[in-house]
Amino acid sequence: MKAMTKLIPLIAVFAALAMFSQGCKKEESKTMTEAPAAKAALSATEIVLGAVFPMTGPIATYGQESVNGMKMALKKIGDIKGKKIRLIVEDNKGEPNESANAVRKLIDIDKVHAIVGSVASSNTLAGAPIAQQSKVPLMTPASTNETVTQTGDYISRTCFTDAFQGVVMAKFAYETLGKKKAVIIVDNSSDYSKGLASVFTKKFKELGGTIVDGSFTYVQKDTDFRSLLRKVKREGPDVIWLPGYYTEVGLMLNQARQMGINLPFLGGDGWDSPKLQELAGAEGIKGNYISSHFSPDDVDPAVQGFVKEYVDTYGQKPGAMAALGYDGVLVMADALKRAPTMDHAGIRDALNSTKDFIGITGSITIDENRNARKAAVVLETTAKGMKFKQKVNP
Amino acid sequence: MSTGTESDFVYFLYDLATYLLNGITQGSVYALVALGYTMVYGIIKLINFAHGEFYMIGAFIGFFCIRSGMPLWMAFPCAMIGSGMVAVIIERIVYRPIRYAGRIPALITALGTSLFFQYFGQNTLGADPKAFPKVTDFENKTYQFGELFVSTNQIVIISTTFILMVFLYWLVNHTRTGKAMRATSFDKNAAELMGIDTNKIISFTFFVGASLAGAAGVLVGMYYNTVEPMMGLIPGLKAFVAAVLGGIGIIPGAVLGGLVLGIAENLVVGFWVSTYRDAIAFGILILILLLKPAGLLGKNRKEKV
To answer: Is the CATH number 3.40.50.2300 carried by domain A41-160+301-374?
Structure first.
């Protein structure tokens, strides 16, 4: 009993601290406490939009940028059919199981009209089957893995797929850079990374290049790549294909230069974060190339307008995820306006029939596989940010 | 043909040297963290799962000190003292009240403390990894010996770890406080009867253990150029494994365990498939514990009935 009485103040301290930490959270998580009014169908007075993004964790800048872009778009849209749009952001911490929980919560408790998200393919793949089963439209602005939209007719995306991105980079490596022998380093915990690795392998071999056999893998949250890089170096490649996410990639680039590897590393849109420059350091970042969705250097006045507004609002240059989040919400709003009925099936039909929507990441048409066919840009990574290299049309 | 195999052999030696160097560097970090685990366990039989968080706190204190313009030789002790103080406070308000409640409640409390710091850290500091500020000019410099690349950070980590361990050895074996620590660990009640303030000694043990972890945090921040609130999780677990591997409660065991684990991991990555890294590392743990249940340096003592 005595131990118990001693425990009570302890528990109190924890509870107080927990509440304090809850209070610090950003406003979007407050919706947790708003219980649903009834088990009724969708709200008739407002449009509830769910969003599942990694606001914390190793790919947190993706979530934060996406949501920044989405909020900017929402401000621009205003009301649709006289209804306010309410955005509920759920944090999936960059983890698949959390994504599945978040999608479930948005559907069951918040009764959302539609869901936007997530960014990393593994996370979107975890949530998509739940949305499909519940027949709630889920549109990802940034997940590029092929299998994401194959889940079903309620799942769509407004970005290009890895089948395109991987081919762009394989061609760039072989034709533009003239590289013939590649090593592929794969993030084994990521569907995105594995998908891109196989697309690149196929195209690079088809072009006449060789891919070094062997398993060069790591997993998310690894920090030490020195021994792995040593092994890569011994194979004597002239280019390294590294389809990973910026946190691990940044550390790897940094360590690679310290290990005396001065080859170009190539990557996909998973590198496209301002964090990459910081983590890789001035030496590590030089002379690598990535494919992405958007370049803030694009001279298109629409893009420049977006970049300026974003910088004014958030104080930093937008990355690809901000642009994709922005476009994603605009496409969603466009679909909501066109939707014949404001139920899930109506919104799905409108989304899937999106045609020639001009966004800042290009013209968006959702095809019969519910993918968007769009141009990609190849960027060079420099200490001062991503430099525009070329634009590749599908 | 013979020249081919000869140069193959030379390359193999360079490979081996590289993997060993990386392994010793990583192992030194595991060892520094494992020391705190093993000391705390030695003295109050608590597996302090929040120990990885002291490592994270140390790294962040170092991060903020250096970012505010403090030189490394000041930031480093600051981080050590800072994380030591946090550990003392945690011991006072969290562990001491339940010290006699049994082992399981203490273990659960330690897990809770660990999660608390991880998520509190994400909330207040932000969850994204932060680049560690440049400390000195020597950072990132590499020396090349044939095909072996040695970075100054690796030298700093290994030598700092060595110095701290010598210091710890001296502290535990050649000072009055060390004697009191050993006495408390051996028999707490008898130590109390001999006039030792065991509460103070336990606090001090937490302080020393956590400051070593804090030191490791700063070193790792420099080495990998990154700090983040969840950074203590994996090294914390690995260090716990290292402590058990060497024989938990035995100070040299923690060092040995850390080095064995670090080297094993890097050899697996280098000569085999990196996917198996943790599987092999933990396989080794299971194997050693099957053969020597008390750990590498542990003595098998029969339980008294």
So the answer is: yes
Give the CATH class of B13-291: mainly alpha
- Cβ-count burial A169-181 (b if 16+ within 10 Å, e if not): bbbbbbeeeebee
Using CA coordinates, name the residue in chain A closest to B19.
Answer: A227
pLDDT for A45 equals 83
Q: What is the pLDDT of residue A39?
A: 38
Q: Quick check: A18 and B116 CB within 8 A?
A: yes
Using the Cβ of B98 and the Cβ atoms of chain A, whether some distance falls under 8 Å is answered with yes
Distance CA B42, CA A265 (A): 48
Please name the residues in contact with A105: beta carbons below 8 A apart, sequence gap of 6 or more: A90
> What's the ipTM?
0.81
Cite the residue boundaries of each domain of chain A with CATH code 3.40.50.2300.
41-160+301-374, 163-292
Q: Structure pTM?
A: 0.79
Give dist(CA A346, CA A343) in Å, integer: 5
pLDDT score, position B2: 42
Calculate how close chain A gets to B101, using CA atoms only, in Å.
Answer: 6
Class of domain A163-292: alpha beta
Chain A residues in contact with B149 (beta carbon < 8 A)? 258-260
Domain ranges of chain B: 13-291
